[in-house]
Write a structure and sequence with these properties.
Elements lengths: L1 E6 L5 E11 L3 H15 L6 E6 L3 H4 L5 H4 L7 H8 L5 E5 L11 E6 L7 E4 L14 E3 L3 H10 L4 E3 L5 H9 L5 E5 H6 L8 E3 L13 E6 L3 H8 L4 H17 L7 E8 L2 E9 L6 E8 L4 H25 L37
Parallel strand pairs: 2-3, 2-4, 7-8, 7-9
Antiparallel strand pairs: 1-2, 4-11, 5-11, 6-9, 6-10, 12-13, 13-14
Length: about 350
Protein backbone atom coordinates (compact mmCIF):
# COMPACT_ATOMS: atom_id res chain seq x y z
CA UNK A 1 0.00 0.00 0.00
CA UNK A 2 1.07 3.53 -0.71
CA UNK A 3 0.09 6.47 1.46
CA UNK A 4 0.20 10.23 1.39
CA UNK A 5 -1.36 13.09 3.34
CA UNK A 6 -4.22 15.30 2.21
CA UNK A 7 -5.93 18.29 3.75
CA UNK A 8 -9.64 18.37 4.56
CA UNK A 9 -11.69 21.56 4.56
CA UNK A 10 -10.53 22.32 8.09
CA UNK A 11 -6.85 22.10 7.24
CA UNK A 12 -6.36 18.85 9.14
CA UNK A 13 -3.94 16.27 7.76
CA UNK A 14 -5.17 12.77 6.93
CA UNK A 15 -3.36 9.78 5.51
CA UNK A 16 -5.11 8.37 2.44
CA UNK A 17 -4.49 4.88 1.17
CA UNK A 18 -3.88 4.12 -2.47
CA UNK A 19 -3.37 0.87 -4.30
CA UNK A 20 -2.18 0.35 -7.82
CA UNK A 21 -4.36 -1.64 -10.19
CA UNK A 22 -2.49 -3.11 -13.15
CA UNK A 23 -4.19 -4.43 -16.25
CA UNK A 24 -3.40 -5.18 -19.87
CA UNK A 25 -3.88 -2.46 -22.50
CA UNK A 26 -6.74 -4.42 -24.07
CA UNK A 27 -9.76 -2.06 -24.03
CA UNK A 28 -11.94 -4.61 -22.23
CA UNK A 29 -9.47 -4.94 -19.37
CA UNK A 30 -8.95 -1.18 -19.29
CA UNK A 31 -12.68 -0.70 -18.90
CA UNK A 32 -12.81 -3.45 -16.30
CA UNK A 33 -10.00 -1.76 -14.40
CA UNK A 34 -11.84 1.55 -14.52
CA UNK A 35 -15.02 -0.13 -13.31
CA UNK A 36 -13.11 -1.71 -10.46
CA UNK A 37 -11.66 1.69 -9.58
CA UNK A 38 -15.10 3.29 -9.49
CA UNK A 39 -16.56 0.50 -7.37
CA UNK A 40 -13.74 0.55 -4.85
CA UNK A 41 -13.50 4.33 -4.76
CA UNK A 42 -17.15 4.34 -3.81
CA UNK A 43 -16.38 2.55 -0.57
CA UNK A 44 -16.22 4.77 2.55
CA UNK A 45 -12.53 3.92 3.06
CA UNK A 46 -10.83 6.96 1.57
CA UNK A 47 -9.22 4.63 -0.94
CA UNK A 48 -7.91 5.86 -4.26
CA UNK A 49 -7.03 3.51 -7.11
CA UNK A 50 -4.26 4.27 -9.59
CA UNK A 51 -4.61 2.50 -12.94
CA UNK A 52 -1.35 1.07 -14.28
CA UNK A 53 -1.65 -0.23 -17.88
CA UNK A 54 0.91 -2.94 -18.64
CA UNK A 55 1.87 -4.78 -21.82
CA UNK A 56 1.99 -8.58 -21.80
CA UNK A 57 3.57 -11.05 -24.20
CA UNK A 58 0.14 -11.85 -25.60
CA UNK A 59 -0.43 -8.18 -26.39
CA UNK A 60 2.87 -7.85 -28.26
CA UNK A 61 2.83 -10.98 -30.44
CA UNK A 62 0.10 -10.15 -32.94
CA UNK A 63 1.43 -11.76 -36.11
CA UNK A 64 1.33 -15.34 -34.82
CA UNK A 65 -1.68 -17.46 -33.82
CA UNK A 66 -1.92 -17.94 -30.06
CA UNK A 67 -1.88 -21.70 -30.51
CA UNK A 68 1.53 -21.46 -32.20
CA UNK A 69 2.92 -19.10 -29.56
CA UNK A 70 2.09 -21.69 -26.91
CA UNK A 71 2.61 -21.42 -23.18
CA UNK A 72 0.26 -20.40 -20.40
CA UNK A 73 -0.42 -16.99 -18.95
CA UNK A 74 0.29 -15.05 -22.14
CA UNK A 75 -1.88 -12.16 -20.92
CA UNK A 76 -1.15 -12.31 -17.17
CA UNK A 77 2.50 -13.11 -16.43
CA UNK A 78 3.82 -9.55 -16.58
CA UNK A 79 1.00 -8.40 -14.29
CA UNK A 80 1.86 -11.12 -11.78
CA UNK A 81 5.51 -10.07 -11.80
CA UNK A 82 4.39 -6.54 -10.94
CA UNK A 83 2.40 -7.92 -8.01
CA UNK A 84 5.33 -9.97 -6.72
CA UNK A 85 7.66 -6.97 -7.01
CA UNK A 86 5.16 -4.73 -5.18
CA UNK A 87 4.82 -2.43 -8.20
CA UNK A 88 1.09 -3.14 -8.14
CA UNK A 89 -1.39 -4.22 -5.49
CA UNK A 90 -4.06 -5.83 -7.66
CA UNK A 91 -4.28 -7.14 -11.21
CA UNK A 92 -7.47 -7.18 -13.28
CA UNK A 93 -7.82 -10.07 -15.73
CA UNK A 94 -10.28 -11.37 -18.26
CA UNK A 95 -11.01 -14.75 -16.68
CA UNK A 96 -10.68 -16.66 -19.95
CA UNK A 97 -6.99 -15.60 -20.00
CA UNK A 98 -6.19 -16.70 -16.43
CA UNK A 99 -4.18 -19.94 -16.06
CA UNK A 100 -5.38 -22.57 -13.62
CA UNK A 101 -2.27 -22.16 -11.47
CA UNK A 102 -0.82 -19.11 -9.76
CA UNK A 103 2.70 -18.17 -8.64
CA UNK A 104 3.49 -18.80 -4.99
CA UNK A 105 1.95 -16.05 -2.88
CA UNK A 106 -0.63 -14.89 -5.43
CA UNK A 107 -4.26 -15.87 -5.90
CA UNK A 108 -7.57 -14.89 -7.40
CA UNK A 109 -9.50 -13.20 -4.61
CA UNK A 110 -12.50 -11.74 -6.42
CA UNK A 111 -14.60 -12.60 -9.46
CA UNK A 112 -16.90 -9.79 -10.59
CA UNK A 113 -20.39 -10.24 -12.02
CA UNK A 114 -20.31 -11.94 -15.39
CA UNK A 115 -21.19 -10.17 -18.62
CA UNK A 116 -22.83 -12.09 -21.49
CA UNK A 117 -20.48 -15.10 -22.01
CA UNK A 118 -21.57 -15.99 -25.55
CA UNK A 119 -19.58 -15.73 -28.75
CA UNK A 120 -20.68 -13.11 -31.28
CA UNK A 121 -21.13 -13.62 -35.01
CA UNK A 122 -19.99 -10.39 -36.68
CA UNK A 123 -20.49 -9.77 -40.39
CA UNK A 124 -21.31 -6.88 -42.69
CA UNK A 125 -23.25 -8.96 -45.20
CA UNK A 126 -24.74 -11.97 -43.44
CA UNK A 127 -27.16 -12.24 -40.54
CA UNK A 128 -26.10 -15.60 -39.16
CA UNK A 129 -23.52 -18.35 -39.30
CA UNK A 130 -25.89 -20.56 -41.27
CA UNK A 131 -26.43 -17.79 -43.84
CA UNK A 132 -22.77 -17.83 -44.92
CA UNK A 133 -22.27 -19.31 -48.40
CA UNK A 134 -19.92 -22.26 -48.79
CA UNK A 135 -16.32 -21.12 -49.06
CA UNK A 136 -16.83 -18.02 -46.92
CA UNK A 137 -13.81 -16.91 -44.91
CA UNK A 138 -14.34 -16.72 -41.14
CA UNK A 139 -11.73 -15.24 -38.80
CA UNK A 140 -10.92 -16.40 -35.27
CA UNK A 141 -7.80 -16.89 -33.16
CA UNK A 142 -9.42 -19.56 -30.99
CA UNK A 143 -9.03 -23.32 -31.49
CA UNK A 144 -12.17 -23.72 -29.39
CA UNK A 145 -14.20 -21.61 -31.79
CA UNK A 146 -12.48 -23.17 -34.78
CA UNK A 147 -13.33 -26.77 -33.91
CA UNK A 148 -17.00 -25.94 -33.31
CA UNK A 149 -17.23 -23.89 -36.50
CA UNK A 150 -15.60 -26.66 -38.52
CA UNK A 151 -17.96 -29.26 -37.09
CA UNK A 152 -21.08 -27.24 -37.89
CA UNK A 153 -19.88 -25.73 -41.18
CA UNK A 154 -17.08 -27.85 -42.70
CA UNK A 155 -17.58 -25.94 -45.95
CA UNK A 156 -16.18 -22.71 -44.49
CA UNK A 157 -12.58 -21.48 -44.65
CA UNK A 158 -11.35 -20.64 -41.15
CA UNK A 159 -8.40 -18.27 -40.94
CA UNK A 160 -6.39 -16.89 -38.06
CA UNK A 161 -7.33 -13.42 -36.80
CA UNK A 162 -5.19 -11.60 -34.23
CA UNK A 163 -5.11 -8.07 -32.85
CA UNK A 164 -7.38 -6.03 -30.63
CA UNK A 165 -11.08 -5.69 -31.34
CA UNK A 166 -10.61 -2.55 -33.43
CA UNK A 167 -7.98 -4.23 -35.59
CA UNK A 168 -10.15 -7.29 -36.12
CA UNK A 169 -13.15 -5.22 -37.11
CA UNK A 170 -11.01 -3.21 -39.53
CA UNK A 171 -9.88 -6.41 -41.24
CA UNK A 172 -13.51 -7.45 -41.58
CA UNK A 173 -14.49 -4.04 -42.96
CA UNK A 174 -11.59 -4.17 -45.43
CA UNK A 175 -12.99 -7.35 -46.92
CA UNK A 176 -10.36 -9.78 -45.64
CA UNK A 177 -13.08 -11.86 -43.99
CA UNK A 178 -16.75 -12.56 -44.64
CA UNK A 179 -17.37 -12.88 -40.91
CA UNK A 180 -15.44 -12.98 -37.66
CA UNK A 181 -16.18 -14.45 -34.25
CA UNK A 182 -15.62 -12.29 -31.17
CA UNK A 183 -16.81 -12.28 -27.57
CA UNK A 184 -20.15 -10.59 -26.91
CA UNK A 185 -18.81 -9.26 -23.59
CA UNK A 186 -15.87 -7.48 -25.19
CA UNK A 187 -18.02 -5.79 -27.81
CA UNK A 188 -20.58 -4.67 -25.23
CA UNK A 189 -17.94 -3.25 -22.90
CA UNK A 190 -16.56 -1.24 -25.81
CA UNK A 191 -19.97 0.08 -26.82
CA UNK A 192 -19.86 -1.92 -30.06
CA UNK A 193 -22.93 -4.06 -29.46
CA UNK A 194 -24.39 -2.83 -32.76
CA UNK A 195 -21.72 -4.83 -34.63
CA UNK A 196 -23.16 -8.11 -33.34
CA UNK A 197 -25.30 -9.76 -36.01
CA UNK A 198 -26.08 -12.77 -33.83
CA UNK A 199 -25.09 -14.06 -30.39
CA UNK A 200 -24.22 -17.72 -30.77
CA UNK A 201 -25.97 -19.94 -28.20
CA UNK A 202 -23.85 -22.43 -26.23
CA UNK A 203 -25.35 -25.23 -28.30
CA UNK A 204 -23.57 -23.80 -31.35
CA UNK A 205 -20.46 -22.30 -29.75
CA UNK A 206 -19.75 -23.30 -26.16
CA UNK A 207 -17.88 -20.42 -24.49
CA UNK A 208 -14.36 -20.52 -23.10
CA UNK A 209 -13.75 -21.18 -19.43
CA UNK A 210 -14.57 -17.99 -17.53
CA UNK A 211 -15.56 -16.06 -20.67
CA UNK A 212 -17.34 -12.80 -19.87
CA UNK A 213 -16.08 -12.67 -16.27
CA UNK A 214 -13.42 -10.40 -14.80
CA UNK A 215 -11.17 -11.60 -11.99
CA UNK A 216 -8.95 -9.68 -9.58
CA UNK A 217 -5.65 -11.13 -8.39
CA UNK A 218 -3.54 -9.93 -5.48
CA UNK A 219 -0.94 -11.03 -2.95
CA UNK A 220 -2.52 -13.54 -0.60
CA UNK A 221 -0.80 -12.05 2.45
CA UNK A 222 -2.27 -8.60 1.74
CA UNK A 223 -5.17 -8.90 4.15
CA UNK A 224 -6.32 -5.29 3.83
CA UNK A 225 -6.61 -5.45 0.04
CA UNK A 226 -8.42 -8.78 0.18
CA UNK A 227 -10.95 -7.29 2.60
CA UNK A 228 -11.56 -4.31 0.31
CA UNK A 229 -12.02 -6.50 -2.75
CA UNK A 230 -14.40 -8.92 -1.04
CA UNK A 231 -17.29 -6.50 -1.64
CA UNK A 232 -16.77 -6.80 -5.41
CA UNK A 233 -17.07 -10.58 -5.47
CA UNK A 234 -20.20 -11.91 -7.22
CA UNK A 235 -21.14 -15.15 -5.52
CA UNK A 236 -23.11 -16.71 -8.38
CA UNK A 237 -20.46 -15.92 -10.97
CA UNK A 238 -17.75 -17.27 -8.67
CA UNK A 239 -19.60 -20.58 -8.30
CA UNK A 240 -20.07 -20.94 -12.04
CA UNK A 241 -16.48 -20.09 -12.85
CA UNK A 242 -15.28 -22.45 -10.11
CA UNK A 243 -16.99 -25.38 -11.83
CA UNK A 244 -15.57 -24.39 -15.21
CA UNK A 245 -12.04 -23.89 -13.93
CA UNK A 246 -12.05 -27.12 -11.93
CA UNK A 247 -12.85 -28.96 -15.14
CA UNK A 248 -10.10 -27.10 -16.99
CA UNK A 249 -7.59 -27.77 -14.22
CA UNK A 250 -8.13 -31.52 -14.46
CA UNK A 251 -7.70 -31.32 -18.24
CA UNK A 252 -4.57 -29.16 -17.72
CA UNK A 253 -6.00 -26.78 -20.27
CA UNK A 254 -5.20 -23.21 -21.18
CA UNK A 255 -6.67 -20.43 -23.29
CA UNK A 256 -5.03 -21.74 -26.48
CA UNK A 257 -6.51 -25.26 -26.60
CA UNK A 258 -9.86 -26.50 -28.01
CA UNK A 259 -11.68 -26.72 -24.67
CA UNK A 260 -15.07 -25.15 -23.95
CA UNK A 261 -16.94 -25.03 -20.66
CA UNK A 262 -20.00 -23.16 -19.47
CA UNK A 263 -21.86 -23.35 -16.16
CA UNK A 264 -25.29 -21.89 -15.46
CA UNK A 265 -27.10 -21.59 -12.14
CA UNK A 266 -30.73 -22.55 -12.72
CA UNK A 267 -33.29 -23.04 -9.94
CA UNK A 268 -30.57 -23.41 -7.34
CA UNK A 269 -28.69 -26.04 -9.37
CA UNK A 270 -25.51 -25.79 -11.43
CA UNK A 271 -25.69 -27.04 -15.01
CA UNK A 272 -22.17 -27.52 -16.32
CA UNK A 273 -21.44 -28.29 -19.98
CA UNK A 274 -18.02 -28.92 -21.50
CA UNK A 275 -16.30 -30.11 -24.66
CA UNK A 276 -12.90 -31.01 -26.03
CA UNK A 277 -12.51 -30.96 -29.81
CA UNK A 278 -10.02 -31.84 -32.49
CA UNK A 279 -8.91 -28.55 -34.10
CA UNK A 280 -10.31 -29.63 -37.49
CA UNK A 281 -13.74 -30.39 -36.00
CA UNK A 282 -13.54 -34.06 -36.96
CA UNK A 283 -14.24 -35.16 -33.39
CA UNK A 284 -15.76 -33.30 -30.45
CA UNK A 285 -16.25 -34.96 -27.05
CA UNK A 286 -19.11 -33.42 -25.04
CA UNK A 287 -20.47 -33.96 -21.55
CA UNK A 288 -22.51 -32.29 -18.83
CA UNK A 289 -23.27 -32.39 -15.12
CA UNK A 290 -26.04 -31.07 -12.89
CA UNK A 291 -25.68 -30.69 -9.16
CA UNK A 292 -25.68 -28.59 -6.01
CA UNK A 293 -23.65 -25.35 -5.99
CA UNK A 294 -21.51 -26.57 -3.10
CA UNK A 295 -20.34 -29.41 -5.33
CA UNK A 296 -19.21 -27.08 -8.15
CA UNK A 297 -15.54 -28.00 -7.96
CA UNK A 298 -16.13 -31.74 -7.74
CA UNK A 299 -18.59 -31.54 -10.65
CA UNK A 300 -15.91 -29.96 -12.80
CA UNK A 301 -13.37 -32.62 -11.93
CA UNK A 302 -15.87 -35.44 -12.50
CA UNK A 303 -16.90 -34.07 -15.89
CA UNK A 304 -13.27 -33.73 -16.94
CA UNK A 305 -12.66 -37.37 -16.04
CA UNK A 306 -15.63 -38.39 -18.18
CA UNK A 307 -14.33 -36.40 -21.14
CA UNK A 308 -10.86 -37.89 -20.78
CA UNK A 309 -12.24 -41.42 -20.64
CA UNK A 310 -14.44 -40.80 -23.70
CA UNK A 311 -11.62 -39.73 -25.99
CA UNK A 312 -10.52 -36.26 -24.88
CA UNK A 313 -7.24 -37.66 -23.58
CA UNK A 314 -6.19 -38.69 -27.08
CA UNK A 315 -7.28 -35.37 -28.61
CA UNK A 316 -5.39 -33.32 -26.02
CA UNK A 317 -2.34 -35.56 -26.31
CA UNK A 318 -2.17 -34.78 -30.02
CA UNK A 319 -2.55 -31.06 -29.35
CA UNK A 320 0.00 -30.99 -26.50
CA UNK A 321 2.52 -33.04 -28.49
CA UNK A 322 2.15 -30.96 -31.63
CA UNK A 323 0.57 -33.78 -33.62
CA UNK A 324 -2.81 -32.20 -34.29
CA UNK A 325 -4.06 -32.15 -37.91
CA UNK A 326 -2.91 -29.23 -40.05
CA UNK A 327 -5.95 -28.82 -42.27
CA UNK A 328 -6.16 -25.25 -41.02
CA UNK A 329 -2.73 -23.65 -41.61
CA UNK A 330 -3.69 -20.56 -39.61
CA UNK A 331 -3.99 -22.65 -36.44
CA UNK A 332 -0.88 -24.78 -35.80
CA UNK A 333 -1.08 -26.85 -32.58
CA UNK A 334 0.36 -25.58 -29.32
CA UNK A 335 3.62 -26.90 -27.95
CA UNK A 336 3.41 -29.53 -25.25
CA UNK A 337 2.65 -28.31 -21.75
CA UNK A 338 3.35 -29.94 -18.44
CA UNK A 339 2.43 -29.23 -14.85
CA UNK A 340 5.30 -27.42 -13.19
CA UNK A 341 3.90 -27.37 -9.66
CA UNK A 342 1.08 -28.78 -7.65
CA UNK A 343 -1.85 -26.49 -6.78
CA UNK A 344 -1.18 -24.60 -3.58
CA UNK A 345 -3.40 -24.69 -0.54
CA UNK A 346 -4.75 -21.32 -1.63
CA UNK A 347 -5.62 -22.22 -5.20
CA UNK A 348 -6.83 -25.79 -4.68
CA UNK A 349 -7.96 -28.10 -7.46
CA UNK A 350 -10.01 -25.37 -9.10
CA UNK A 351 -7.13 -22.93 -9.21
CA UNK A 352 -9.14 -20.40 -7.22
CA UNK A 353 -8.76 -18.58 -3.95
CA UNK A 354 -11.67 -16.22 -3.53
CA UNK A 355 -14.07 -15.01 -0.91
CA UNK A 356 -17.65 -16.08 -1.57
CA UNK A 357 -19.40 -14.87 1.54
Amino acid sequence: MLGWTTDDNDGNKHVRQCFKNCHTPKPTCTLAGTLCQRQVDGEPSGLVVELVPMVTRGDVILDTPLAKVGGKGLFVKELEVALLENRADIAVHSMKDVPVEFPQGLGLVTICEREDPRDAFVSNNYDSLDALPAGSIVGTSSLRRQCQLAERRPDLIIRSLRGNVGTRLSKLDNGEYDAIILAVAGLKRLGLESRIRAALPPEISLPAVGQGAVGIECRLDDTRTRELLAALNHHETALRVTAERAMNTRLEGGCQVPIGSYAELIDGEIWLRALVGAPDGSQIIRGERRGAPQDAEQMGISLAEELLNNGAREILSEVYNGDAPHEYPGHPPVSRWRRVSEPSAHTGAGGLAFSAD
